[in-house]
Design brief:
Elements (H helix, E strand, L loop, with lengths): L4 H16 L8 H25 L4 E5 L3 E4 L2 H8 L2 H10 L13 E3 L3 H15 L4 E6 L7 E5 L2 E5 L12 E2 L5 E4 L4 E12 L6 E10 L6 H6 L5 H8 L17 H24 L7 H4 E6 L6 H11 L4 H11 E4 L10 E3 H7 L1 H16 L10 E2 L2 E3 H8 L2 E4 L2 H11 L1 H6 L4 E3 L6 H7 L2 H11 L17 H27 L8 E6 L8 H16 L9 E6 L7 H18 L8 E6 L4 H8 L4 E4 L11 H7 L3 E4 L5 H8 L5 E2 L4 H7 L5 H6 L2 H8 L12 H10 L9 H18 L3 H12 L6 H13 L3
Parallel strand pairs: 1-4, 1-11, 4-10, 11-12, 12-16, 16-17, 18-19, 18-21, 19-20, 21-22, 22-23
Antiparallel strand pairs: 2-3, 5-6, 7-9, 8-9, 9-10, 13-15, 14-15
The structure holds ligand 26W.
The site of ligand 26W has 23 residues, from helix 5.
């Protein structure tokens, strides 16, 4: 984008006048942020309008979550004006970095939502016409604070700083009908800028509003049904993002959200398609839709319903749906597979449910065995089955995950439709996750191999011959990043972390299968070892955690409390704190992640094998030159393929081993012969830590008792984890170690989201 400092500052000033009744001298941070952003939007409008007109097939990425993070720096970078705007602001005595206080747009929980955000950016950057469709939640993922070591949730008022990057498009509003109320859906469009290529795609987020302005008369008299009161409630649909990651909550409001978003999106698309005078039978030639997990799967019966209203037969509508939809699965955890109660669904959305029954009937007509294949059974609608039956393609998100889908989770379906199943390994955008968060390292790479890797990440491989040469720079930059992170942690958490310590980092949602608990156990192992003098010369290490637990997930919250207690013990110990520190950072989010991944020395990816579909945090660390301490799970397997297992630290049971032992496994066999482990476990119940609410006791029970003790094989993998983790910590500091780290960076090419979206386009979408 062309940039003229004088004109830009003039625009900023005019917007300050019109919107805030102030000028450059008197503007506060917020006003300045909004005016600067809007000035960029002004400049970008022509390119946005032109991209919308682009001919060719488009894909709609339907997702309940888009974890966008902070927009301003990324947008300026992609428009190629980051330095220019920085300079322009500096010329009037303002610092661009003040906008680091702007809220993150946290309209997502974790991996699935961040993936959607990376894919939008990558699609724009690779010139693929992909638009996002979702919900404009009024409050994003909760903000987390710790009180006495316990997680407490607070509302996330992400619009506090305004929303200059969105445009309300009232002219595209439409009505979404539920059996008990009609709701107005109003879209807010956000531009998605491709990296220095002039392409601008769109993220369209729907907001719910009353159909008519509030009807005072009805309200006043409370006449008849409660339509007026419902209108009053309409906005509630989009009030808040469900804070669950991997556990299905069968709440009606969630069902309303899901339908609201897909109905509005499809109405909008079909309406425009018709207005262009096109034949609805040809819809799949112009559009396809990617269903990001089961959350938007109601789009399938909704499209069929809309087409039937247009006069098509069920079978005609079904064929169109089958030609247009594709489905991505992101987890094999049974508790995450969405199912809806037939009564609830048919009550709220009768004509949508009718189409679901039509799909079930069609399935039977196609001669599929009713026992092995079903959409509706025993009063329940199985959303994943609906998605698989109707979609053209179904994909997993890493090789190992797709194989598990084929051989276990969706085995029946795979046997019936082998050609439907494809793998698309996840990816991350290298713009946000290296160029933007680690600019110094990026500059060093540019200096050696040029800038081609910005849009062709495989080129990082050509850095290999220079590994020795850039090792000093790499070490220096990592050291500087660690220093910055330590200062930030000091400011935000009040905890001192000496920058020369090894930074061992585990950041991701809190879940039992991700095994933050295993990490915690290892810390206690080292703590006791150092304390008792069994471990000498312990390499000074800071164990850093970041994670939010779903507010209703008791065990996950217990793990947070446990780790915070461990932190208190370790950091407060005069001897041990010389070589160990523990910190659980509060309110981990995208912006915190950007600071953590560029400063880490070890990336903890330690899920029970078979349970992490892919992981994408693992890729972010790798791209920033960090070794993985992990299991053979998700994309870790492919990271080892690319970077060499010898350059990472792999431990633990494999998927086959997990499958072989999980039914016969008794953790006591291990605990009884491992006094070390038994001592660690006992800290949960012996008063080592304060546990006035009894949460640690419940953690103890989850490992040692109940129906399925130690379901995630923490005890099983404990010894091997310690062995390999100790090896990593001992290796740290040598040139050998830093070379391993850098070789990971050189091998990260495969994990660009540019490659992922291209795979989607080549194998599934055929767009552009
Ligand atoms: C219904 C509640 C619910 C909410 C979110 C169920 C399931 C989810 C997501 C599918 C959970 C999720 O984010 N999965 C993660 O997706 C990433 C992107 O593909 C993967 O890298 C992670 O391994 C996977 O856990």
């Amino acid at each position: 984008m062309k940039f003229n400092r004088k004109e830009f500052l003039q625009d900023v000033e005019r917007i300050l006048h019109a919107d805030f009744k102030c000028d450059l001298k008197s503007a506060g941070k917020k006003e300045l942020y909004n005016a600067v952003s809007k000035a960029v939007m002004l400049e970008a409008y022509p390119a946005w309008a032109a991209s919308k007109e682009a001919a060719g097939k488009r894909c709609g990425y339907f997702s309940a979550e888009f974890l966008m993070g902070r927009a301003i720096f990324n947008n300026l970078l992609n428009l190629g004006i980051l330095e220019e705007v920085k300079g322009a602001l500096a010329s009037v005595g303002e610092d661009l970095s003040q906008f680091e206080e702007v809220e993150d747009a946290a309209l997502g929980n974790g991996g699935l939502g961040r993936l959607a955000a990376c894919y939008l950016e990558s699609a724009a950057s690779t010139n693929l016409p992909l638009d996002g469709y979702g919900i404009r939640y009024r409050y994003g993922l909760f903000r987390q604070v710790f009180e006495d070591g316990y997680q407490k949730e607070e509302g996330d008022d992400w619009l506090r700083w305004g929303d200059p990057w969105s445009v309300r498009v009232e002219r595209d509003a439409c009505i979404v009908r539920f059996s008990d109320m009609d709701i107005l859906a109003v879209p807010y469009d956000m531009p998605i800028f491709g990296y220095k290529n002039g392409v601008v795609n769109t993220l369209r987020l729907w907001s719910s509003e009353p159909v008519r302005a509030f009807d005072f008369e009805l309200f006043d008299t409370m006449k008849g049904d409660s339509k007026a009161v419902d209108n009053f409630n309409a906005t509630k649909i989009c009030d808040v993002l469900y804070p669950n990651d991997n556990t299905m909550v069968g709440k009606l409001l969630r069902l309303r959200q899901q339908y609201f978003m897909v109905s509005a999106s499809l109405q909008d698309i079909v309406r425009k398609f018709k207005a262009a005078g096109k034949d609805l039978h040809t819809l799949p030639e112009a559009y396809c839709f990617q269903l990001n997990d089961t959350h938007p799967v109601l789009a399938i019966p909704e499209l069929i319903r809309i087409l039937r209203c247009e006069g098509l037969s069920f079978d005609e509508a079904f064929e169109i749906a089958r030609g247009a939809f594709n489905f991505t699965n992101h987890t094999i955890m049974a508790e995450a597979l969405e199912r809806w109660d037939v009564l609830a669904l048919s009550d709220l959305l009768p004509s949508v449910y009718e189409q679901i029954l039509g799909c079930q009937e069609r399935l039977e007509r196609e001669g599929l065995d009713r026992d092995r294949f079903f959409i509706v059974r025993d009063g329940t609608v199985h959303m994943a089955n609906l998605a698989i039956f109707v979609s053209s393609k179904v994909n997993g998100v890493a090789e190992i995950h797709t194989n598990i889908l084929k051989t276990e989770t969706f085995r029946n379906w795979y046997e019936q439709y082998p050609e439907k199943f494809v793998n698309i390994t996840n990816g991350i955008t290298p713009r946000r996750w290296l160029l933007l968060n680690n600019p110094e390292l990026a500059k060093v790479i540019d200096g050696k191999i040029g800038e081609g890797w910005h849009t062709d990440l495989k080129q990082l491989a050509s850095l290999r011959p220079f590994v020795d040469e850039i090792l000093p720079d790499f070490k220096r930059i990592k050291g500087e990043n660690k220093q910055k992170l330590a200062a930030y942690i000091k400011e935000r958490e009040g905890v001192d972390i000496p920058p020369h310590f090894i930074f061992d980092v585990q950041i991701k949602r809190l879940h039992e299968y991700k095994r933050q608990l295993l990490n915690a156990f290892s810390i206690l192992h080292f703590y006791f070892g150092v304390k008792d003098g069994r471990i000498t010369d312990f390499p000074p290490t800071a164990f850093i955690f970041g994670a939010k637990a779903a507010p209703g997930y008791y065990m996950a919250k217990a793990v947070i409390k446990f780790i915070n207690e461990i932190a208190k013990l370790v950091n407060g110990d005069e001897d041990v704190s010389k070589v160990m520190r523990v910190v659980f950072v509060q309110d981990y989010d995208v912006s915190y992640a950007e600071k953590l991944v560029c400063a880490a020395d070890a990336s903890e990816q330690i899920s029970t094998a078979g349970m992490e579909a892919s992981g994408t945090g693992n890729m972010k660390f790798m791209l920033n030159g960090t070794v993985t301490l992990g299991t053979m799970d998700g994309a870790n397997v492919e990271i080892c393929e690319e970077a060499g297992r010898e350059n990472n630290y792999i431990f633990g049971a494999t998927v086959d081993e997990v499958n072989a032992v999980k039914h016969s496994y008794n953790p006591w066999d291990i605990i009884n012969r491992t006094p070390e482990l038994s001592r660690i476990l006992n800290t949960l119940v012996d008063g080592t830590f304060s546990d006035e609410r009894g949460v640690l006791k419940r953690l103890y029970e989850s490992i040692t008792g109940g129906y399925e003790p130690d379901r995630y094989l923490v005890c099983y993998d404990f010894a091997d984890y310690i062995r390999v983790k100790e090896a990593l910590l001992r290796d740290y500091g040598s040139d050998e170690f830093f070379k391993k780290s850098l070789l990971n960076l050189c091998a990260a090419g495969k994990f660009s989201a540019d490659r992922s979206v291209r795979d989607y386009s080549d194998l599934i979408w055929h767009i552009g």
